[in-house]
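Researcher: Go.
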Amino acid sequence: MHFFVRSGLYATYLHPVKRKSVIGHACWAAVTAGAFASGLVLDRNGVDQPSAVKLPRAKSSRGAGGEISGNSASRSVGLSGSLQLSGGQSLGGVTGVEAGALSQPEIAALAKEAFRSGNPLVRRSAFDQLLGNLTAENAQDMLVHLKENRVGGEQWRDFHYLWGTLDGKAAVDHSLNSEERDLSHTMSGWASSYPDAAINYINNLSEEDRGSFRHLQEAMVSGMADNDTARATDYVLQLANQGDDRANHLFGVVTKEVVSNVGIDEAAQWSQSLPDGDLKGAALDTVAHRFTNSDPEAAAQWVEQFAGQAYADRAIEEVGDEWAERDPASAVNWLETIQEGRGQSMGLHSAFGEWAQRDPVAAGERITSMERSPQRDAAISGFARRISYDDPGAAIEWANSIADEGSRSRALTHAGQQLFRRDRAAAEAWVGSSGLSPEAQQAVRNPPNRRR
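Model: Structure:
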């Protein structure tokens, strides 16, 4: 299935993106809870789970915002029986747990198995049963046991994410008043199932609260991207169209989810289908990083279609830089063939910096073989910058061979700063005859503080 995202002036064709893997931010339990229609058991651990997931016989209903109505407890997936190994050997576990709502004693028994059993497989199975039987009505009872046993990490996250998918507003309202780190998880879960309700909730916060809970918006976007990349993309593009200063950051959240959860081909198609501009450039850059780590030649072939586009400069550089970490000569050969422009120059600068770190002699020989050109200037600039940390004198010599005055001045200033850090007297003796402007000479004498 294909679809369009429309936002203001944008109309974007998006390639379908698969739902996130159950391992990671969208916990496996959320998928289990979504198995009502199929009646299937999802076993993440590869251990046979003999109990079938049954459709709940609940009389309660859910509104568009995820709120519960009706007087029956249970929109849940019931898992019953003890964990069994092949051959029928039992690892123990709570018995008599039927599909549907759990009583408080049953919750307590499962919690004891989940958090206090000495057998890790029993603990895992029991916790999975807790999540499988989570409902809007018993969430608070289960939460008591999580707190009593000081549950954290993935179990804490998965519980609150699933609670958010089942009863988002109640889960978020509770989290706003709690001292634990659970708010982002509940909001992500809510947004994954009911994005419109979550958006309305954020939009109706007071200005003061929106400033205090800006991380809610990030969690919401992350949750939306778990299930519906198109919806998350559309939401952030609308913010960008409205001039919201958070759009760039939030789009990075969407891109991270896409890159983490789908194949590289799908991620590449998604990023290139975005409207031209800074957000598309940021997405291309992130995808280029993963693509190059997987297959640098294929990544280069994909990204070169954007050569010459200002928004793609960083993506071109990313491919050149990452490829040069493995095979600098091949990366440089490719960069020299693509369309001239800032992206090519940035890529050569980064690639020769990587090459200088791996093999400065070979990198220097390659530069020597290049004709005088903007490409050669970019190569020398990256090469000189890297060797300046070990041999600022040699970096100064290389920098002086750069033809472009602006590039030469920047390279000399950086090399001079490294010399000043190592030998202030030598730097003072050199800088007066360096040909640098008074401003650049002052910069040499006042190098920036090193980053910790």
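Model: Residues 1-64, 68-99 have pLDDT under 50 and may be disordered.
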